[in-house]
Each structure stands twice: as structure tokens, then as C-alpha cells.
Amino acid sequence: MTTDTIFGVSSPQSQDTLSKILQFGNRRLVNPASIAKYQLTRSEFQSGKADINSTTRPASQANKRRILSSTSFVSTWHPPEFVIDGIFQKRYLYTLTGPTGTGKTAIAQRLALHVALGWQLDQHAIEQGRVLYFAGENPDDIKTRWKALNEELGLDERAVPVDWIEGAFKLTEREVGDLVREAELAGQRYSLVIVDTVQAYFPGDDSNNNEQMKDYSQTLRRLLSLPGGPAVVALAHPNKKGDQSVPYGGGSLLNDIDANAYLSKKDGRITLAAHSKWRGPPFDPIAFSLTVFDTPKLRDTKQRPIRSVIARVVSAGVHDTTRKLLAALQAQPEATLAQLAEAIGLIEPTKSAATSKVDRALKSLETKGLLRKEGKRWVLTEKGVESFSGEKPFDTKTKGEEDV
Question: pTM higher than 0.70 for the full model?
């Protein structure tokens, strides 16, 4: 089908313009109806005067009032609505800054999973909601990590309500407009949007240029207009020099976002904390561990298990939970994994997720020398008895946690 049969376009300029529009739309697989956003009339196409780069305000907005009364101004106010209670709010734009090796993607995927399933994050309640994830930096690696994380938790990733945008591209106002319309047409509402990363979708040619970064931050803010009014968390590399908690990209990015969280690494632990640029209630830092996970089901082309990196939440009550597990084993040496999960009050969305978590915990305690396996029974070692009684502190570092 030619452009002439679509719009009756005959001039070369109009054909070239239409070609650009169709190429633009196809790149994101946007519904063809979204082309109407350009408000291009038949006469504009036929005269060759259509300009897809025009930024002229539509006539309907030309006389829009800028000065509002106090009543009008507060009429659109929304009470704070947290996606992750006490941390990320809907309709807020955040950066999550961290240097290489702090697990930005692994932790972002963990956040996405908890929001999509409504799982509590450490001490923070979560309202379940759909997630949109921009997989800009190495989508193949992101796919592997996502499948590994779901496999470790006994989940089918196809049933987890997370939508994806694959690959890096220049994120512009028009791209965001198309995404908003696509979500509206699909009837999807989002609680959380993760952009991985700020740098992957930067549309300019100099990320240190304050004007370019300011325009880009406003484009990122437009993602808040997606149906559902999501919180937008954009992963960011830090400044190349100086403060590693500040996102790279000139002062404009830090100035224009609502808040910045940052990741730091110490003694094999990753800590998520609020930066001094933080609008919202303060929160206690959350600890994560990065664990190398050999997937039992995922295989490479030579049928070898695939090794991936996943993030685990290090609960503030990890020692109490360990003591509960040791106590349950001492009381019921032949207890099943399900019985142990019930005994320590472990709550997970599925039975398999709970038993899988207990199984990992037992193997971890065996690695630390607190337990040993005798047949089908787990038995406390002398070190385990001492730890259980509180005579010796727990060693919280787990085998398999590496500096990644």
C-alpha cells in the first residue's frame, strides 16, 4: 500500500513527512490511531505544508489562563498516595543513583516485583499495582535477571503484572505522548514506572548541558501522566567525580526531580537511602544483598545452568527470624519445609515461595556451620546451639553473596 492510497498524498514533501510519522509510530508499535496526535489535516498533507517538528501551541490552548485563584489551584490536589509506603509516592519523579556494582538493575527489579505482587518490602507495606519497566541498558541481560528472580521465588514471570519497553531510544515528548495513548487504549493503569536508565533514554548530545538535561527531566516528568498517575523511578549513574550519591547530568536533573534515593555499598551489603534532596517523609535505610544465583531451569545453548545476579532484602529482623528457625528445628527436627515456614510465621504469596525461602535459609545456615544434615533431618551444630542461645553473634554474610 502506498502513501497515496492512505491519505491521497501526491507531493514529495508530504510523502516524506508521512513516511517519518509512520516510521516513528512503528518503532514503538503504537496503535495507528495515535498518528492523530499530530492534528495534520488532509489539506496540509496535500499542500506539502505539514511539519511534524512544529511546536506551535494549538489554537485551543492559545488563550489558556495562567493565573489561578487559590480555589482553582488546590482543586487538583491529591493526598499523598504511596506505592511503597513511606518511600515512593504516586505522581512523583525520583532518581535512584548508584555507581557500578551497587545492583541498580537487580534492586529495581526487586522493587518492580514487590509492587506488582503487593509484597511488603522490609517494614514497608505496598499497594499492589501494575508496573511499566523501561529496559534500556542491555535488555537481554535484564530478561535473564528477571527470569532468574522469578525462578528463585517459584513464580511464573508471565503471570506477574509487569509490562516492558525494550531497548534504548531517544525519549521525547512525542514518544511519551504515544506511550500515554497506548496505555489508555490498552486500558492499563500503572502504579510504578522504572526507567533503566536515565542515560539510556537521553535524547540530547551532551548530558552535562543544563538546558538539554532540564528539557529531558521535564519529559521524564510527563511519564507521571500515564494512566494511574504512577511514581516514576529513573535509575541513574552518579557523577564521574565527587559525590557518588548525585545523579550524573548537570545540576538541572537534581534540581528538577522531586527526590533522589541512592545506593551505597559496604561490607557486601547495599543500602538504599534518601539523599538530602528528598521531598517526603524520611525513612530508615533498607539493606539488600546481591546474590549470584545458578538457575536450575534456565540453560545456555550448551545446556549449562545460567548464572545471574539477584537482589534480596536483608530484613531488619533477620537475626530474630534465624533464631525462630533454629528453635523450630530444635523442637521439630523432622519438620517439613511447610511446617517450618508456618512455625516461624513466614508469609509469602504462595506455598512454594515460602518453602523455597525456608530451604535457602537452611542451606545458608548449613554453610555458616550452624546446621548439618543427618539423613533427612537438620541438626543444630555446637555453633548453632551457641548462636541460638545468644552466646555468640550471628555471621550475617551468606555464601554466594559476591561483590558484583
Answer: no
pLDDT digits (tens, 9 = 90+) for 138-189: 999 999 999 999 998 889 999 999 999 999 999 999 999 999 999 999 999 9
Say if residue 331 is in the same domain as residue 251.
no
Same-domain check for residues 200 and 249: yes
The number of residues in the chain equals 404
Query: What distance in Å separates the CA atoms of residue 351 and residue 273, rounded to the nearest whole number?
Result: 32
Q: How many domains does the chain have?
A: 3
Whether residues 283 and 331 fall in one domain: no
- Residues 271-304: b if buried by 16+ CB within 10 A, e if exposed: bbbbbebbebeebebbbbbbbebebeebeeeeee
Please report whether residue 138 resides in a domain. yes
What is the grid cell recorded at 344?
516461624
Q: 3-state class of 270 per DSSP?
A: strand
* Residue range of the domain that includes 381: 317-389
pLDDT, tens digit, 9 for 90 and up, residues 286-334: 999 998 888 888 999 999 999 999 999 886 544 556 777 888 887 788 8
